[in-house]
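Technical annex, item 7. During the second reporting period the consortium partners agreed on a shared format for inverse folding records so that results from different sites could be compared directly. Each record opens with the tokenized structure and is followed by the designed sequence. A conforming record, contributed by the partner at site C, is shown below for reference.
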């Protein structure tokens, strides 16, 4: 390289040093990866947590649905009745405990939950026809699709042999990730209380002709 080819050849040593230092600073990549990771880490982990929480919530929904199917089968075959003269006689608390046992792989019911519903709500009734069975989620407001669950009239009164019955289960699943809350929750009380993902599972059936 000739002096004419070097743009710094005709400058003073001090200026050459300053320009060289500036170029070195601009070209330096020391710590860039750490800064880039710091900028991307928060949204990255939010997305990861959102995916995990969505998976867990849908898994919980499947577990509740399986519990409804299992206990509905026991009602249908006469293994669970409200006839005090039979060995299959089951109280409301015993039925709730049996349901909690079915979902215990992921959802834990406290002793107070078995006695007094706080998150898990069960409704078991007999009907005169399938057409008379409810087809919507009972809510406190008929105009607000996100209003809270209306548990008025929830009871445990299954029918006997050959009767038509419906089992409905609702579980208030808490959403932790803020990113998911506006999209996954389906109960958003107007009073500002916590929004939840209401897990819903139902089964309608006719009991067998058991003795």
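Designed sequence (site C submission):
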């Amino acid at each position: 390289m000739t002096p004419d080819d070097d743009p710094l050849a005709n400058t003073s040593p001090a200026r050459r040093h300053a320009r060289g230092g500036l170029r070195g600073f601009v070209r330096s990549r020391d710590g860039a990866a750490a800064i880039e990771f710091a900028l991307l880490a928060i949204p990255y982990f939010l997305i990861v947590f959102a995916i995990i929480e969505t998976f867990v919530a849908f898994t919980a929904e499947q577990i509740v649905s399986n519990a409804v199917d299992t206990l509905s089968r026991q009602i249908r075959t006469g293994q669970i009745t409200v006839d005090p003269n039979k060995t299959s006689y089951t109280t409301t608390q015993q039925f709730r405990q049996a349901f909690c046992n079915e979902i215990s792989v992921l959802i834990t019911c406290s002793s107070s939950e078995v006695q007094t519903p706080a998150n898990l709500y069960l409704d078991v009734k007999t009907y005169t026809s399938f057409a008379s069975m409810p087809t919507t989620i009972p809510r406190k407001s008929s105009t607000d699709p996100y209003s809270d669950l209306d548990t008025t009239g929830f009871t445990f009164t299954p029918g006997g042999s050959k009767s038509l019955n419906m089992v409905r289960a609702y579980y208030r699943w808490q959403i932790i990730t803020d990113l998911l809350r506006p999209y996954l929750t389906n109960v958003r009380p107007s009073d500002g209380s916590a929004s939840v993902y209401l897990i819903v599972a139902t089964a309608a059936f006719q009991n067998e002709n058991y003795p």
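Helices lie at 13-27, 32-76, 92-103, 111-115, 181-184. Residues 16 and 44 are 44 Å apart (CA to CA). All partners now use this format for quarterly exchanges.
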